[in-house]
Specification:
Layout: H1 13-23, H2 40-52, E1 58-64, H3 72-75, E2 79-86, H4 89-98, E3 105-109, E4 123-128, H5 137-150, E5 151-162, H6 186-195, E6 198-206, E7 216-223, E8 233-237, H7 240-254, H8 274-284, H9 288-301, H10 305-317, H11 321-334, H12 339-351
Parallel strand pairs: 1-2, 1-4, 2-3, 4-5, 6-8
Antiparallel strand pairs: 5-7, 6-7
Helix pairs in contact: 2-7, 5-6, 8-9, 9-10, 10-11, 11-12
The structure holds S-adenosylmethionine.
Length: about 350
C-alpha cells in the first residue's frame, strides 16, 4: 500500500483508528494500492488467489481489516459466510453499503485485537492482507490468541505481516520500509503461534516494494494436529517485486480483465412499466441494443430508478461503460440508498481500465 504515515513509527491505536477513519483519502477504495500489479484483479489472481486456492471454498471466512473491501469483493464468492472486522468505523460502514446485496456477508468494528464476533472453533479461513504489516508485536500476539480460540479443527489462517523485526535497527534506512512494524518478524509469529497451540506451516518472506529487504511475510497458521499441520516450510522470496509484481503488471497490459457482473434490479422494478419488462425480455433474448433504446424511451417518459439502473446495465452490455457510469452516478445522487446501483458502480469500477 501507499505510505500512509510517517516512517518514524507506528502510530498508537487511537491515532491509527483516526487516520483510517478521518485522514486517509479512500476515494479509490484502496484500489490504488494495486497499481504496481496493474490493478486489483491482477493482484488478486496472480498473488493472492494462487496462494490461498487450496483453502477455498471455505464454509466461514473471517477477514481481518478489510478496509473498503478490496479483497472481500473476491472472498465473498468463496464461502458460505464471511465476517469482516476492522478498527475503522468508516471502513465498516463502507463495506456494509458496498456489499449490501450479499446476505452472507457482515462487518463489525473491533478493538484492534479481538475477534469476539466469532464463536469458538467456528472459522475455516482467517484472511488478512495488506493491513497487519503495520501491526506491532502486541497486536499480533492478541490476534494469535484469538486464532487459537476461533479456528475450526481444520481451520487455517493466511496472514500478511511485517518481517522488519528480523533486521537489526540501524542496519536499514528507516525511511524506506513502507511503514512496516519493526517489532514483528516471521520467527516471532512462529513463536507466538506455538505458544498458543498453533503451528506455522508455511512462511514466505518477501521483498515488498524493494529488492533488498525481506520486509514482509505471508504466514499460514493452523492448529497443531489439523489436516494442514506439518513442518514449517519457509522460503525467502527476494524477487517478489522484481518478478511477481512485474509479471502481473505485464499480464495486465496484455490481457483484459474479466467483464464485471452488472445485475438488473429486476426484483425491485416498477410493476407498472410494461415497456421496462419488455426491454428485459429483449435483453434476455440477447438483443441488448433494442432493449436499451426501448428503456431509454421509458426513462424519458417517466423517471423510474429501477429503469435507470437497468438502462445502465444495458449501456454497459452495449460497450458504453461511460454512459453506464454516468447513469449510475446520477441514480446514486438521487437515490443514495439504491443498493443495486452501488453494486453495479463498484463492479464497473473494478473493471475499468487504469
Ligand atoms: C491499508 S488498509 C488495507 C485494507 C484492505 N486489507 C486492503 O488491502 O485493501 C488498512 C486497514 O486496516 C485496518 N486496521 C489497521 N489495524 C487494524 C487492526 N489491528 N485490527 C483491525 N483492523 C485494522 C484499518 O482501519 C484499515 O481499514
Amino acid at each position: 500500500m501507499a505510505q500512509a504515515a510517517d516512517d518514524a513509527g507506528m502510530p498508537a491505536l487511537a491515532d491509527n483508528i483516526s487516520m483510517w477513519n478521518e485522514s486517509y483519502d479512500w476515494s479509490q477504495q484502496g484500489d490504488e494500492w494495486s497499481d504496481a500489479w496493474g490493478g486489483v484483479a491482477y493482484q488478486w489472481w496472480v498473488t493472492l488467489f494462487s496462494r490461498i486456492q487450496g483453502f477455498v471454498p471455505a464454509g466461514r471466512i473471517l477477514e481481518i481489516a478489510p478496509g473498503y473491501g478490496r479483497w472481500t469483493h473476491f472472498l465473498r464468492d468463496l464461502c458460505d459466510e464471511l465476517v469482516g472486522v476492522d478498527i475503522a468505523e468508516t471502513a465498516v460502514a463502507h463495506c456494509r453499503k458496498r456489499f449490501a446485496g450479499d446476505e452472507h456477508v457482515s462487518f463489525h468494528v473491533n478493538n484492534g485485537t479481538s475477534l469476539a464476533i466469532a464463536t469458538d472453533r467456528s472459522i475455516d479461513l482467517i484472511f488478512s492482507f495488506d493491513s497487519l504489516v503495520h501491526a506491532e508485536h502486541d497486536i499480533l500476539a492478541g490476534y494469535l490468541e484469538e486464532f487459537a480460540r476461533v479456528l475450526a479443527d481444520d481451520g487455517v489462517a493466511f496472514i500478511h505481516h511485517s518481517n522488519m523485526g528480523s533486521y537489526e535497527p540501524g542496519s536499514y534506512d528507516p525511511h524506506n520500509i513502507h511503514w512496516r512494524a519493526t517489532t514483528v518478524s516471521a520467527e516471532l509469529v512462529e513463536r507466538l503461534a506455538r505458544s498458543v497451540g498453533l503451528r506455522c506451516v508455511s512462511q514466505e518472506t518477501v521483498a515488498w516494494g524493494n529488492e533488498k529487504l525481506l520486509n514482509d511475510c505471508f504466514s499460514v497458521i493452523t492448529r497443531a494436529g489439523s489436516r494442514w499441520d506439518r513442518e514449517n516450510d519457509t522460503a525467502a522470496n527476494i524477487d517478489f517485486t522484481r518478478h511477481e509484481m512485474a509479471t502481473a503488471r505485464r499480464i495486465s497490459a496484455l490481457y483484459p480483465r474479466a467483464r464485471p457482473a452488472l445485475a438488473f434490479g429486476a426484483q425491485e422494478r416498477s410493476e407498472t412499466a410494461r415497456s421496462h419488462t419488455t426491454a428485459l425480455e429483449l435483453a434476455a433474448g440477447g438483443d441488448a441494443a433494442t432493449a436499451r433504446s426501448l428503456l431509454r424511451d421509458t426513462v424519458r417518459g417517466q423517471f423510474d430508478p429501477e429503469a435507470l439502473n437497468d438502462l445502465a446495465v444495458l449501456a454497459h452490455r452495449c460497450g458504453d461503460s461511460d454512459e453506464a457510469v454516468a447513469l449510475l452516478q446520477a441514480l446514486i445522487c438521487l437515490h443514495p440508498e439504491h443498493t443495486a446501483a452501488h453494486e453495479n458502480l463498484a463492479a464497473l469500477r473494478e473493471a475499468r481500465p487504469e
